[in-house]
């Protein structure tokens, strides 16, 4: 068994092709093709695809813990939002004195609240490296504390789901408060610069799309590496029969905690890439409904496959973009039906259906091949 | 004859002009004086009319204040103008239309208006309407002057209605606190010490603040203030406890169905909140139908009617869900959560499409509106009280079903050990369907109750769902006592934290507390004991 190869040769081919499309073709179609031409990628699609890439990263993280370790976190959106808030804080500090109140240090909402100086937890966010570090560390720290407490006391299954849901709900309530110092209801918005580049400019947007695609690709390889490792196999065993793994002498706590924290980090980075592309982060991102939606992306694509998670995130979100524009009242019916149909009829997702179809075709070809000589004789 | 009258009037006028005002002047004279030219006279008349305590003065004073009081040039009589007609201000006799040249408008200024309103409020103490008297007696509290005290004293002698009497005594004591003999003041303060009214506290604090108050008065005020503070603190605690129990009973209503289904089937029904919502919309619909069909005096009972209907509607939807979706997902609790979440989205959107997204108002029937003042400032709202009673009633019925019926026996058996129960011949599939129906039906009834304390909207279920999950997780499954203890303690903790931390932070603290609690007891407060291994 090739334990060290991350992907099959064909897999690498597909991976690189997809990367080429996202990183080279799409940006080129936006920047180089003539506007209006059939090759041209309109400006509004660039951040949209970038957004999908971030969602796909989030879905990857979800698949890593749910598909491989059996942890259905209904609070994965919280890590995403925390990463987003860290990035948002950096972007707020970059506004400088170009805000409505022209205060060189305080963001507008703090001036509005009559605050005189920056709270301690906003210190350092004017430096990109610090913000980037926090994007990873804050979600990781929360995941570590929550995961350590939960896994140590063997909180599993629906209990864990409810606990994570309560966590994101609590964070949502907390972030809605103005006194928290994160902009309350309105969140953080009106960003101007990112690393000295204008956030709104088409070039930056293309750059962000490329960054998201790279982030997605790297996360995929990382997840792929984890699930292929010995730890990944322990996780899968935990998913299928936790008690048995325990009886065999493995401690589930460390393995689960590791993937949980890694998933939180990936979610945080996804959130950080997401915020400059949509231009706002607000407490609504913490809402439990958002987190549950991530699970359906993974389920639609096919869980425990990683590729499926990416596929699912793209499919469901493209459908969402289209449906909420074309027939907004139908969207919730569609999403609800998706939850029901996928869990009832497609437990292995789109990818599972495709694989079934492939094996069936291969089997029928095999029987055909086997049948031919019989006919010949 | 008319000449005689005129002479008599002239004589009277003469008399009134020379007589000593305090004893000879009658009600009619003071009314006439209201229309005098001199503002000093008018002021005196307005004040005296208030002190006289004769309710007949009210229209004249009101008219003067509104600029509708006129004086007849020929004899100086005060007239009230109403449209184009005039009335005699003293007797109220109609005089018909008068030529504009015969009358003059009586001028009024702000000082006069102030005196008039004080007099009017004193006069309301003698109004024929009991509610007006009560309001006036309560209002007099805010204006503790010797004049008020005199008026209150007079009112005290003529008053019959007990609650008005109490209010008068109360306000009288307040008026006596600020001025008068030291002994009287101390007595008044002591009589006030037995209340728990924040207004009294302010009054006494004001007494303490006045520098020239005698030391006996100050001491009495200090003692009374301490006892009032203590009582107010107690009322505050009681209020918090009541609100906590009220919140807890709401949580219990919302969570009990969830706890039952989770206990029996091991699945979390994410659409449970929507069952509550369906119940609330059932109440709304029943209300509409009742308003259209029932006579007005019976409409108030629509709520009683909607309880069983909501149970049937939500219960039927629950059984449908179990038969149509959930039974195919047994053994996969996480997938069940996702599927039921999908159902909840569909139900929300369906209700939004049928009833639109606006909040719907389910009116409180008359017997549920308002409340009563249990003790100074501790107000108990009827709808809250009824919900607490209803909640415990429902809990009792569920306990009876669980303990005394064969269905309950089957449910408990399946909760303890599904395989063993099946082996003993219990039809587990039917138990599941009925349990789900029961849990959903209970949620529907909870929805009817919740429609009485808040708006009914498609998102109603979402408000309660996270909380009810936490109740179930906190209390442990398959145990009504656990659900009861969990919801009441969560409600209490929430309300007790609220004054210190604010509503939102208090809630966040409760959530964090439960997250930590689960580490300590992963299966809740009252975990089911048994010899089984997970999975």
Automatic annotation (TrEMBL), chain A:
Name the Pfam families on file. Answer: BPD_transp_2 (PF02653)
Recorded superkingdom: Bacteria
Indicate yes or no for the key word Magnesium: no
Q: Which UniProt keywords apply?
A: Cell membrane, Membrane, Transmembrane, Transmembrane helix
Q: Which GO terms describe its cellular component?
A: plasma membrane
Membrane topology qualifier? Multi-pass membrane protein
Keyword Transmembrane in annotation: yes
Q: Which CDD domains match?
A: TM_PBP1_LivM_like
Q: Where would you find the membrane-spanning parts of this chain?
A: 65-87, 127-151, 158-176, 206-227, 247-274, 294-318, 330-351
Q: Which InterPro entries match?
A: ABC_transp_permease, ABC_transptr_urea_perm_UrtC, LivM-like
- Major location category of this protein: membrane
What GO molecular function terms would the record report? Answer: branched-chain amino acid transmembrane transporter activity
Q: Which NCBIfam families match?
A: urea_trans_UrtC
Annotated protein name in UniProt: Urea ABC transporter permease subunit UrtC
This protein's gene is called urtC
Automatic annotation (TrEMBL), chain B:
The UniProt keywords, alphabetically, are: Amino-acid transport, Cell membrane, Membrane, Signal, Transmembrane, Transmembrane helix, Transport
Record carries keyword DNA repair: no
The secretion signal range is 1-24
| CDD domains xref list | TM_PBP1_LivH_like
Which InterPro entries does this chain map to? Answer: ABC_transp_permease, ABC_UrtB_bac, BCAA_transport_permease, PBS_lyase_HEAT
Q: Which GO terms describe its biological process?
A: amino acid transport
The record's subcellular location field reads: Cell membrane
One Gene Ontology cellular component: plasma membrane
Protein's membrane topology: Multi-pass membrane protein
Please name the GO terms that the record assigns under molecular function. Answer: transmembrane transporter activity
Where does the sequence pass through the membrane? 247-268, 300-321, 375-402, 469-493, 499-518
Q: Which domain of life is it from?
A: Bacteria
Family from the record: Belongs to the binding-protein-dependent transport system permease family. LivHM subfamily.
| NCBIfam families, per the entry | urea_trans_UrtB (TIGR03409)
Official protein name in the record:
Urea ABC transporter permease subunit UrtB
């Amino acid at each position: 068994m090739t334990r060290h190869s991350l992907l099959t040769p064909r897999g690498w081919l597909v991976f690189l092709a997809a990367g080429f499309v996202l990183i080279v073709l799409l940006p080129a179609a936006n920047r180089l093709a003539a506007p209006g031409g059939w090759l041209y990628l309109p400006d509004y699609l660039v951040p949209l695809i970038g957004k999908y890439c971030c969602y796909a990263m989030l879905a990857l993280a979800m698949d890593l813990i749910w598909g491989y370790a059996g942890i259905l976190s209904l609070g994965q959106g919280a890590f995403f939002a925390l990463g987003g808030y860290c990035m948002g804080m950096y972007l707020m500090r970059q506004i400088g004195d170009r805000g409505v109140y022209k205060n060189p240090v305080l963001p507008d909402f703090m001036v509005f609240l009559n605050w005189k100086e920056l709270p301690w937890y906003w210190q350092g966010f004017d430096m990109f490296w610090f913000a980037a570090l926090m994007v990873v560390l804050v979600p990781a720290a929360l995941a570590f504390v929550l995961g350590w407490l939960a896994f140590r006391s063997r909180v599993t299954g629906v209990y864990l789901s409810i606990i994570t849901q309560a966590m994101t709900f609590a964070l949502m309530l907390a972030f809605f408060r103005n006194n928290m110092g994160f902009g309350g209801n309105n969140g953080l918005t009106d960003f101007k610069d990112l690393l000295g580049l204008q956030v709104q400019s088409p070039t930056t947007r293309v750059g962000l799309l490329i960054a998201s695609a790279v982030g997605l690709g790297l996360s995929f390889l990382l997840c792929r590496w984890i699930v292929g490792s010995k730890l990944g196999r322990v996780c899968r065993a935990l998913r299928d029969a936790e008690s048995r793994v325990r009886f065999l002498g493995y401690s589930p706590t460390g393995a689960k905690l590791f993937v949980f924290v890694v998933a939180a980090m990936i979610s945080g980075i996804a959130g950080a890439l997401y915020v400059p592309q949509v231009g706002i982060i607000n407490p609504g991102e913490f809402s439990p409904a958002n987190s549950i939606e991530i699970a359906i992306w993974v389920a639609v694509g096919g869980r425990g496959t990683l590729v499926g998670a990416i596929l699912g995130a793209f499919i469901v979100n493209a459908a969402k973009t289209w449906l909420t524009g074309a027939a907004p009242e139908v969207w919730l019916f569609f999403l609800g039906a998706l939850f029901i149909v996928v869990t009832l009829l497609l437990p292995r997702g789109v990818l599972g259906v495709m694989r079934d179809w492939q094996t069936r075709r291969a089997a029928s070809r095999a029987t055909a091949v086997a049948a031919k000589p019989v006919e010949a004789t | 004859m008319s000449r005689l009258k005129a002479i008599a009037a002239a004589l009277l006028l003469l008399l009134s002009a020379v007589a000593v005002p305090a004893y000879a002047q009658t009600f009619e004279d003071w009314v006439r004086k209201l229309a005098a030219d001199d503002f000093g006279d008018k002021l005196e008349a307005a004040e005296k009319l208030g002190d006289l305590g004769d309710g007949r003065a009210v229209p004249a004073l009101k008219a003067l204040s509104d600029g509708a009081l006129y004086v007849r040039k020929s004899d100086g009589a005060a007239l009230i103008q109403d449209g184009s007609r005039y009335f005699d201000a003293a007797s109220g006799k109609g005089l018909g239309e008068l030529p504009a040249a015969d009358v003059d408008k009586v001028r009024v200024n702000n000082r006069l208006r102030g005196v008039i309103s004080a007099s009017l409020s004193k006069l309301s103490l003698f109004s024929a309407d009991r509610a007006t008297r009560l309001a006036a007696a309560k209002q007099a509290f805010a204006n503790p002057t010797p004049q008020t005290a005199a008026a209150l004293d007079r009112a005290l002698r003529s008053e019959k209605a007990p609650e008005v009497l109490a209010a008068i005594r109360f306000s009288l004591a307040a008026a006596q606190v600020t001025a008068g003999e030291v002994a009287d003041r101390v007595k008044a303060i002591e009589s006030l010490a037995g209340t728990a009214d924040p207004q009294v506290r302010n009054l006494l604090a004001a007494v303490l603040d006045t520098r020239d108050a005698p030391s006996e008065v100050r001491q009495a005020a200090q003692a009374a203030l301490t006892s009032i503070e203590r009582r107010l603190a107690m009322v505050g605690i009681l209020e918090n406890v009541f609100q906590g129990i009220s919140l807890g009973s709401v949580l219990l209503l919302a969570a009990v169905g969830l706890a039952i289904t989770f206990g029996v089937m091991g699945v979390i029904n994410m659409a449970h909140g929507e069952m509550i919502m369906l119940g609330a919309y059932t109440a709304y619909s029943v209300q509409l139908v009742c308003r259209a069909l029932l006579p007005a005096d019976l409409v108030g009972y629509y709520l009683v009617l909607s309880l069983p209907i909501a149970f049937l509607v939500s219960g039927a939807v629950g059984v449908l869900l179990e038969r149509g979706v959930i039974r195919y997902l047994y053994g996969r609790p996480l997938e069940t959560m996702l599927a039921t979440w999908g159902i909840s989205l569909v139900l929300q959107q369906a209700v939004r499409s049928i009833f639109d997204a606006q909040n719907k108002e389910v009116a409180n029937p008359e017997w549920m509106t308002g409340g009563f003042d249990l003790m100074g400032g501790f107000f108990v709202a009827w709808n809250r009280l009824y919900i607490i009673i209803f909640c415990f009633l429902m809990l009792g019925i569920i306990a009876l079903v669980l303990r005394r019926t064969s269905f309950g026996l089957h449910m408990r058996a399946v909760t303890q050990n599904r395989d063993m129960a099946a082996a003993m011949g219990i039809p587990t599939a039917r138990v599941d369907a009925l349990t789900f129906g029961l849990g959903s039906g209970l949620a529907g009834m909870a929805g009817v109750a919740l429609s009485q304390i808040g708006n009914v909207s498609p998102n109603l279920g979402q408000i309660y769902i996270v909380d009810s999950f936490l109740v179930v997780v906190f209390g442990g499954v398959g145990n009504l006592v656990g659900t009861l203890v969990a919801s009441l303690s969560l409600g209490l903790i929430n309300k007790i934290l609220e004054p210190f931390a604010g509503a939102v932070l208090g809630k966040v603290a409760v959530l964090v507390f439960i997250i930590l609690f689960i580490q300590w007891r992963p299966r809740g407060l009252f975990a089911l004991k048994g010899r089984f291994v997970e999975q």
